[in-house]
Structures
1.
Amino acid sequence: MTTGESVIRRMYMYGLDRAKVVGSENVFDYSLGNPSVAPPSAYTDALVDLVQNENPLLVHGYSPNVGMPQAREAIVKDLNKRYHMGYTLKNIFMSVSAAGALAHAFRAVVTPGEGQNIITFAPFFPEYIHYVGGSGAELKVVPADFSSFQINFEAFESMIDEKTVAVLINSPNNPSGIVYSTQTIERLANILRAKSAELGHVIYLISDEPYREIVFEGTDAPFVAKFYDNTIVCYSYSKSMSVPGARTGYCLINTEAEGYEDFVAVCVQISRCIGHNCPPTLMQLAVARDAGATSDLAVYETNMNILYDELTSLGFEMVKPGGTFYMLPKALEADATAFCEKAKQFDLILVPGDSFGAPGYFRIAYCVPTEKVRRSLMAFRKLAALYKH
Amino acid sequence: MTTGESVIRRMYMYGLDRAKVVGSENVFDYSLGNPSVAPPSAYTDALVDLVQNENPLLVHGYSPNVGMPQAREAIVKDLNKRYHMGYTLKNIFMSVSAAGALAHAFRAVVTPGEGQNIITFAPFFPEYIHYVGGSGAELKVVPADFSSFQINFEAFESMIDEKTVAVLINSPNNPSGIVYSTQTIERLANILRAKSAELGHVIYLISDEPYREIVFEGTDAPFVAKFYDNTIVCYSYSKSMSVPGARTGYCLINTEAEGYEDFVAVCVQISRCIGHNCPPTLMQLAVARDAGATSDLAVYETNMNILYDELTSLGFEMVKPGGTFYMLPKALEADATAFCEKAKQFDLILVPGDSFGAPGYFRIAYCVPTEKVRRSLMAFRKLAALYKH
């Protein structure tokens, strides 16, 4: 399997080169999942206020290994309010964004050298292969249910074995934009409970939720941790606050999870071995000022609707996204790479779905200005026309 | 061997508890290496200007995996000017502070599962045990030369074996404050060249230099990378700019080093496996504005001189520090832990040297206000008096 990064990056670099020739306004770059709206002023105002008015030895000083208490307190308070949970500081460990959170979660549940595996579901973020591999386990990928991009449960059940220590989900999903329904999460939790009992060891559910706040109207978007005790949530503010450069997120374990008592201490030990020492203090303090703040995320839904309406009318098949800023339509030929190459002639930068476990599909990352989305429709029309004769 | 962190943290936590009783102004807390002076205004002004006046999608957006080009450019330019080097962007990889830099350097030179080792010299920062262990190698510690805290070369040469892939140095040194002289570095480089030739593989020199900018008057403080081709420098702005919370540093390899061509790409691959994805963008851009800026570091030399004069006059034996904000005097009894316990009755918080590979010694982290250093002298006098009868 190839890695997604190289394909995404290659398309992105092509887009940059092309922009030098025709101007960036004329390149419809749908390759990168980089937020296109500004961070909330609650966050940026907090940064400035902290730097100008607070004690510099606090603001620029070391964070405790577990994270700043102000941030941990504000985050659990926000989660408790929104999801009616009872989290305390003992549930949360601050991490260098979602990548750091996942690095800790995987290492917390994996014993290296024992041939263990973690299962995830296609379509999936291909960096997971490296993230899981680095923890000493193998990532096993359940083939996609292309009809809904929910979970292919039959295939999943047959792939769980005695070496399975965790299941990794990403809902709302990169690259499909689909949100797992309450029914999906309940069925998944039931299987995990039954299999844990059968195998005699806990199978953790690791829920990677950077897109949790980007959910479109009418979408059923359950808070995963409510449905399964042995859940570890991995979160980042990269998408909800449009601050991927802030490298700030967290790991959160349920109070009912096995190993809850030691979880934060275990994360501290893991940090020492991987050179991870907290997210930046300033960003933690800024998040703490308003942990529930988000960017103006409505633009993503606007963009999705414009693209969904146009592309489906052009004959593209796709499952309508329930959140994120991605969609994963079926290409107009079997070879999605060839399809994305053809798209380049209209300065449309698309990413083939192969590395996401979705061959024949392509990803559109529609985190771009809406006016650009509108201008890109003509390019999609021309691309579709290539396949009409 | 116990870990340093727990001892340092335990003493620090004791100091906090004690401060609640007698007031923090009356606790002479010399436990933590947390900078006590404000960051340079070049850095803090840059933070505010970037947040208020630059494109938020740049300032808060993803950094490339290798780091922001602005930061890499500014840093190599500064190093080239100060040390007459010829570094380019191909030499440098931005990291989440020194811990992140070391995590990459170790993984770049170690092949896991082959029983390799990395050698360092006591006294040493005890977290190195975990940092090296996490990379799949073992840390071997050369006993200290207590007469000078330079290198015990005889012991060192006898410890190099066919499994040695790197030597790790930390000069200016935590915990001794000693700076390796040009003579020491030259002799070390000669041995490494000879042993590399003899063993038929490169032994890298990994130079952990967060205290490089804190050097006292008259100290011979060579730039290590000039003396040995196969050097990897690990750096952090935590101490020079007083921003440990900014989590910003870098790995730098010499152009003449084996593996130079692939080094930055290798670091990117390593990042993917350990959940490390660049230091925060905002901090990289702020550093880029003036990569050579430092806090007003003179206070540390002032503090050192006050303590050195008083403690030596009280009969403490020590090697005079050449930099950092640490010193490592000999305790007044063989058991440094017992000594540090006795110091508590005078509200002096000191850290026993055992975990640093210096049993019988204690560390003073004199990154505290000078007026407090002066007030602490009476406490040291009372402590010394306990041993005078």
2.
Amino acid sequence: MGKVRVACFGLTLDGFSAGADQSLQNPLGVHGTEMMDWFFPTDVFRKMHADGESGETGVDNDMAARSFENVGAWVLGRNMFGPVRGPWPDESWKGWWGEEPPYHVPTFVLTHHARKPLEMKGGTTFHFVTDGIHAALERARAAAGNKDVRIGGGVSTVRQYLKERLIDELHIAFRPVLLGRGEALWRDLDARVLGYELAEIIAGERCTHVVLQRVG
Amino acid sequence: MGKVRVACFGLTLDGFSAGADQSLQNPLGVHGTEMMDWFFPTDVFRKMHADGESGETGVDNDMAARSFENVGAWVLGRNMFGPVRGPWPDESWKGWWGEEPPYHVPTFVLTHHARKPLEMKGGTTFHFVTDGIHAALERARAAAGNKDVRIGGGVSTVRQYLKERLIDELHIAFRPVLLGRGEALWRDLDARVLGYELAEIIAGERCTHVVLQRVG
């Protein structure tokens, strides 16, 4: 069985993994992009999201590439899928990523509101899971087979899985920026009690990559 | 007039600047020394606290040395001065640092309980201030003259001065360790609203030095 992983997850000097007031204009919350500024220039990101032009290679790019390796399924929180709240008014919202999302595997979206699966270009199918984080992970594991399940976020989703001790590996991309307000990753969680240990620290060009592994 | 500075202030990956349950055995709280492990091998620390043997030089040592430059007075919280709580039972507690503390200038200790000044070897005199953080800073500024006032800690003291926008420069020594529990530096503080901006990021041998400056 593969691992359950979080990867390339941003963290600021003041402890936030997303800014406040997420919206259509600010998918990462206010000032949230400052946290992810290391990712946008990478070749991995540019080939995936931008105009297909090549980007920078180096440590940050290697870590970005590694985050996509061996991933058999994703789990996303509703907020990471989009800014729509409450019941789906229609089927028009298809995620932040256009016609071909960067997942290319079955992707399970946590929501309280049922919706039929949404098949996108490039192999991504969004499945909407209404019966909780455990059910979503079970379905993702089944879909992933021997590969890993990647928990994409957002912060609330990652925190829920952390609390339940379901995340095996957590790769944090630490940036010494200040958001001021936002969603705090560790607030009221005890990383040691949850079993995390430092596995790797890798200095990137624009952030510090810290890999935590759950032991015992 | 000099600056009001915090320097070499530890911060962990999970947002703590001290561990939980400070005590005589754990002046930095449980696991708190893991946060300061970059400081102990430096030449600055070894010459100051240890057996006088020389330690490592390099970036971390330079930043440690810089933290002591141009300091004309210190302000310390009661917990940073010692583990004694409530009224002073007697005059026997003289700080964590032995006969010759590493301050060498007037040092103002915040406390609710009056005590007469305590003159130590090497120029440090501890003055016990019972009328609050503003009074302590005023006295420290007067004592420092044109030099800087350094707010030594602990976390609660630094947070009180941050809230009142009284700290001009905050040098954080970030270490990607996990304490699990402890005193969170930024909890419920908004670093941007308080006016902080990134001034310097310097990769040390064992930690990342981040210097924040208050603008406007």
